[in-house]
Amino acid sequence: MTSKPFSQPASPGQPCKHPRVQIVSRDEDAEFVECLECREVFESSELKDISIEERVEKESQES
24 by DSSP, 3-state: which? Predict the structure, then answer.
């Protein structure tokens, strides 16, 4: 039996933007998610920080 990855990992020079995540654990004050693309596990609040940083970078490039 062979296993197949869910999707291709992000290219080495391009970080994953974690477009699809699933909850893997919840604590009283934290929720941890796993990216279904790169399999990285991190706190869900970090995902919000990533999207804010991307938006700020995009806005600064447009100016």
Answer: strand
